[in-house]
Request: fold
Amino acid sequence: MVSDADALKQLRWQEQVADKRKRQQAAIPKEWLIPPVPEGQTNVADVPRSCGLLTDRELEITEVSDVTVLLQKLAAGEWSALEVTTAFSKRAVIAHQLVNCLTEIFIDKALERAAELDAYLKKHGKPMGPLHGLPISLKDQFKVKGLETTMGYAAWIGKYAEEDSVLVKLLLQAGAVLYVRTNVPQTLMWGETHNNVFGRTLNPYNLRLTPGGSSGGEGALIALHGSILGVGTDIGGSIRIPAHFCGVYGFRPSSHRMPSYGVVNSLDGQESVATAFGPLSSSLSGVTTFIRSILAQEPWRYCPSAIPKPWSQDDYSLKAHGEGTRLCFGIMWDEGTVKPHPPVLRALEVTKKALEAAGHSVIEWKSLRHSEYIDVTRSFWLADGSADYNSCLTTGEPLIHSMEPDADPNVIPDFRIPRKPLSAYEIWQLNKERRELRKHLLDRWQATASSTGTGRPIDALICPPAPYAAVPHGQKRSSIYTLIWNTVDYPALIMPVTKVDPKIDVKPVRESFWSAEDEHVHGMYDPEIYKDMPVGIQLVGPTLQEEVVLGVGKVVDTVLSSSGHK
Amino acid sequence: MVSDADALKQLRWQEQVADKRKRQQAAIPKEWLIPPVPEGQTNVADVPRSCGLLTDRELEITEVSDVTVLLQKLAAGEWSALEVTTAFSKRAVIAHQLVNCLTEIFIDKALERAAELDAYLKKHGKPMGPLHGLPISLKDQFKVKGLETTMGYAAWIGKYAEEDSVLVKLLLQAGAVLYVRTNVPQTLMWGETHNNVFGRTLNPYNLRLTPGGSSGGEGALIALHGSILGVGTDIGGSIRIPAHFCGVYGFRPSSHRMPSYGVVNSLDGQESVATAFGPLSSSLSGVTTFIRSILAQEPWRYCPSAIPKPWSQDDYSLKAHGEGTRLCFGIMWDEGTVKPHPPVLRALEVTKKALEAAGHSVIEWKSLRHSEYIDVTRSFWLADGSADYNSCLTTGEPLIHSMEPDADPNVIPDFRIPRKPLSAYEIWQLNKERRELRKHLLDRWQATASSTGTGRPIDALICPPAPYAAVPHGQKRSSIYTLIWNTVDYPALIMPVTKVDPKIDVKPVRESFWSAEDEHVHGMYDPEIYKDMPVGIQLVGPTLQEEVVLGVGKVVDTVLSSSGHK
Reply:
């Protein structure tokens, strides 16, 4: 029995959502609307190029992948901030029409800002900061003064921010232009992107597949070159899964390296495994430029939990890592319970061969105790017995229990059944468990020094970002491969390496399985479903060694490029 | 009614304590026993010098205050590690007989180690590390392989450590000699030092007063020159209160700057306001040498929560703070609810005048929202409803409810009544509150840039370490003045400045009070009780800026010395 009050409430949130979507639609200039893609076309990656809306110049601008190149042209005044912002805004809006990746669209503000930056450059003869004129997209958690921050909750419609998030403030200080925010899943705690306010985001390489999540709007937008650099958040893989699924670079720094203050979040206040804030970009230079530019603004002067650790050029140039020559990598083929699909293993194999051919070495790293990592981290996430989610669902908006398009909303799958709330004392005990796991890993990492041949521990660890490339909507399983690095707070970089090729990546015959989950994931593989989907690798280093991971990343990226794998 | 089982249990823990004390006594060489001090003598500070047990050479060695001087003589082989260790061991044992400051006494091991170090120096012609031959005392939380770690709990008697704490490992790696561990209060959560295993530690300047706590054994030992450098822990003032009460230097670094792994603790796993690990010393050089030596060992390679932030000589030399000239200090005379006693205010006044005379400036800092700091932090500490304490009191040993010598053990004072346990979700909400308080403080700190005249925010903040000097046993009240810096995780240094002088520090007439606590604390003041007790100041800087606080501390120390206040 639905009471009248409930029915009214139900109506009201749906009306609010309808109004919100109408306002979102109104933010799109009419002349930037494109016709729908033909029924049955699943790959829309080329539509921004082929739809005819972008001028040649706009195409030239938006198809730059290397952020450094774009920044140089902006700083030199070769391209104005206004034309760059216009180009990316148009392309972002095109992308949105294809894959539903945006939440807030605020192009007017962006163009105004871009004009100010152009005037600044003209007047002062120098750029405003290291990100002068660069359009940057933001996941729907970063508050921008005067804009709503809904984070996919109906109850948050109409919550206008009175202040910028610290990270937003620093981006503006560095000269960036903000123009769009991007879609997320309800509660953020999914590896896909769908909510009751903005709906579902699709993968541009195959609309039937998910772009991943929770920073799925960013992944899809950047893959379509509607943004060259975006900011996401990651508590279990939320930057890295979309980066891997959409074929872009994504970096999860350590939790407190980037400023977190003033960002809206799910499970806010849960600090045992804390959210990390980091970039997604079409180039590694975008990732590195972002981290360096933020650190140059001394975020610890604005955010109380940002660690005052300036950018270290010595670390980035791998001074203590043989200057980047003859590195030794660990390689973890799997985490022991779920074997990755053939294209994922091939991406690792390709990387290993390319590194060895370039004079580096690669040693095996065996996954140990990873199931304990998962147990501890899930216990933290679920410690409130859903109190946080419930506090955000005050409008009658239902909690989404599945990312499957046709899921019965009343069926709660096992893994989403709320747990009994934990006590503070139980959290203390879990913190101790996590500490032991971190110590165990650190000791193992340090102990590799005896087998690398360099006198040092491994310089970085290479591992899969997930057991598969982008999966059909609703099919994303647990995020083991990314989550493990959140548990120990290790920085982790996703780099695109290859695409699924059904000719090479044939389905193997397997007669025995490591676990029920392993069997299920094996069953999901059909080369034709995943055809042409991007596949990346994950590169990991110890806590707060962001510069080392990025420096080693550059070595790997260069090696892969020069061996023809980019 | 006491059941037979309970009576037996009761007997058993008391027998274990008696046995433990017997073993402790047996660890003291008989020839190092001294006669008891005459009845009625309250100041024993001179006894080590006057008792005749120490040779002139041993007096010369142990009365060096400056750790750098001692290290130079050790490194040069001018004094052998063996004679230095012998001298400090003898003096520590004398101190223990006077003020009951030790727990584990392991002089045999220490002398063996010292001999090895001497042999090393002879063989290699260079010291083993930056702390070569330096005897270092440890609070009773730092595990040393093969020794018991009781931390004042009867139930922990017989718990022999299988491994060194990481900090112990690094001290040994740096060449230190370990020889004694020092006393703590039961549960650690007191500003005094008394437990059922080792009993009460006394203040060497007045046995009727407390040395403070929880690192009270360290404070008393160092005041008597039974140690030149010791290691304590601080979650609400536990390094700083004893430093202030005993007239030594004490430094609470930020929580994760020093390695914490492998240390036994109270409320273990409570990470919202995390324990900090730091030194107490008879000199500022001792404090600085400790921090620098530990960081030089790269603690993050051994401890998973140690932040990989190397020692910054630029920060220590105040490169970004005008190279230490024309600094601007904030001064906080009180925290707004409890006015400090006259000698504490005089220590601030003396410091202010000396700094101004040396060309620095001092501006007022008003305490804001400090009662919220206290509320949040106490809520974290008490979140388990005493589950942690209870898990350590399995022998029938009673929980101590008061530090008063004659307290009725059955009366539980209001502030020690266990609270209702909190849920994980409630902890999340408290974490958010703490974040807002930290942001509020950071913004205020940064905003001082407009009034310092240096173009920078204040270079450090000067404030009282407590509203009083050392108080009679059982009279230590809440630790507001130290605890506030734990809440926000700011590094804080205690520096001795003066002593209570009843002629100058007369009791003021006050007609109105800021709070009931203010009135109570005012009522505690009688210049004759506090006569000759040391009084320090507290110097505070932003999170993880240890080098800056130590660098500014050096400026203050030099100014105070050259103006005759040391």
